Amino acid sequence: MIDHLSVGVSSLTRSRGFYDKVLKTLGYKRILSFPQFVGYGRDGKPSFWLGQVTGRAKLRPMPGFHVAFVAADRKSVDRFYKAAIAAGAKDNGKPGPRPLYHADYYGAFVYSAFVIDPDGHHIEAVCHQPE
After folding, report:
1. Reported pTM
2. pLDDT at position 123
3. How many domains does the chain have?
4. Which helix (H) or strand (E) holds 90?
5. DSSP secondary structure code for residue 87 in this structure
6. What whole-number distance in Å separates Cα of residue 103 and Cα of residue 82?
7. What domain range is 40 assigned to?
């Protein structure tokens, strides 16, 4: 349904370092870099963009924004979580099964597992595959 998503950040340098480490655990990488934007994805297609908020920029950091990245398996969710914490994210729920959503939902969120990035955005990795 969604082709791409852009998120405003207060420091592109800081966020680029954070997301380079964290998204790598899920098989995503930085594909395009511009002075005020970077795009992450796989297979040459950026789907997740970060934009530096400056002056009258339209993208503004909004604490509480939530995005969930697809993880191939549960171990990838665990690696994502550990990398995010090591990169300075705040814990907001350790990875684990979340049968409230469905029998095979495994993630990091209050009802799955997620971490809070340097700008207060809630980022999650989720696997919908059985163990």
Report:
1. 0.83
2. 87
3. 1
4. strand 90-91
5. T
6. 24
7. 5-127
Would the CA dihedral through 129, 108, 115, 76 be positive or negative? negative
Please choose, from the candidates 14, 17, 13, 10, the residue with its C-alpha nearest in 3D space to the C-alpha of residue 55. 10
When pLDDT is cut at 50, 70 and 90, the band that residue 111 belongs to is very low
Pull the structure tokens for residue 128. Answer: 């919908």
**Backbone phi, then psi, for 126, in 5-degree steps?**
-140, 140
Nearest in space to 107 (alpha carbons), one of 126, 121, 86, 90: 126
CATH number of the domain where residue 41 is located? 3.10.180.10
Segment 70-93, tens digit of pLDDT: 999 999 999 999 999 999 999 888
Give the tokens for residue 50: 């970060």
The distance from CA 25 to its chain's CA centroid, rounded to whole angstroms, is 11
